[in-house]
Design a protein that fits this description.
By secondary structure, the chain is an alpha/beta fold. The chain has two domains: about 90 residues, Translation factors (Elongation Factor Tu (Ef-tu), domain 3); about 100 residues, Rossmann fold (3-Layer(aba) Sandwich). The protein contains five helices and 15 strands. The chain has a seven-stranded mixed β-sheet with strand order 10-9-8-7-11-12-15, with helices on both faces. A six-stranded antiparallel beta barrel has the order 1-2-5-4-3-6. Strands 13-14 form a two-stranded antiparallel ribbon. Helix 2 runs parallel beside helix 3 and helix 4 runs parallel beside helix 5. The longest helix has 13 residues.
Length: about 260
């Protein structure tokens, strides 16, 4: 059983409307975390005991021993996180969960992110670099573009209002890309409807695909079953998996998308 760590806040800054980048000094942890894993963070301190919040790794800065987590303020817990300042200590459990598959023989990969789901793809882009084509989708305001472009020379942006890049859905860019070249695998993170569409596109084009599911969590270690989701086993039989323990990354064909 993993034990919580007390990590020091190095920086906690807004990078878009309601979106924050939290940099933590994490000696001994930054080398262990894999792309797609998450940290379970205690929110509220002693005054406001709330459930921990799962925040995915966005990227590491190994030279300095930092990990960077990117989150959107959506409630009391993340509101607490946004109030943290330099030097504050944060109770952090992790890294937890199963991350994305990292294999040297993937010669060309496609990374597809939507909204805050773009954050976990930054570290993965740093793994594959020139082999990664990155597709980032937003409603309007963009973020983490500099970090992605530092890691991959092939970054495409879609915004629903047309403010930046392609006007439309990020899955449109993925479909166009697949007409031009075939990646070894697709990695995706974002809203469920976007992931469902990515899974369909991958299936139609016979490309392997891994998706990172977003789910409300309580314990974060697989004990409470509060984050269970419907999946299929190898024989196609329906069962339930724990997003925190069995995921958050699953093969797209495993997921029961309509449940």
């Amino acid at each position: 059983m993993k034990k919580p760590n007390k990590l020091s806040v190095i920086e906690n800054k807004p990078i878009a409307r309601g979106v924050y980048s939290l940099k933590l000094y994490a000696p001994g942890l930054y080398e262990k975390v894999l792309p797609g894993q998450f940290f379970h963070i205690r929110c509220g301190g002693d005054k406001f005991p709330l459930l921990r919040r799962p925040i995915s790794l966005s990227y590491t800065q190994k030279e300095e021993g930092f990990i960077v987590l990117v989150y959107r303020v959506t409630g009391q817990g993340t509101e607490f996180l946004s109030s943290l300042r330099l030097g504050d200590l944060l109770d952090v459990l992790g890294p937890l969960g199963n991350g994305f598959e990292v294999k040297a023989d993937h010669q060309r990969v496609a990374l597809v992110g939507g909204g805050i789901g773009i954050a976990p793809l930054v570290e993965l882009a740093g793994v594959y670099r020139q082999r990664a084509a990155v597709f980032a989708g937003f409603m309007d305001e963009t973020f983490l573009m500099e970090e992605l472009q530092q890691r991959s020379p092939d970054v495409s942006i879609a915004t629903e209002d047309g403010r930046t890049g392609y006007r439309g859905f990020v899955t449109d860019l993925l479909m166009q890309h697949l007409k031009e070249q075939r990646p070894s695998i697709i990695f995706a993170c974002g809203p469920r409807q976007m992931l469902k569409r990515v899974a369909q596109i991958a299936g139609d084009n016979s490309v392997s695909c891994q998706v990172s599911l977003e789910q409300r969590m309580a314990c974060g270690v697989g004990a409470c079953l509060g984050c269970s989701c419907a999946v299929k086993d190898r024989d196609g039989a329906r069962k339930y998996a724990r997003v925190c323990k069995d995921g958050p990354v699953f093969w797209s064909e495993e997921v029961c998308w309509d449940e």
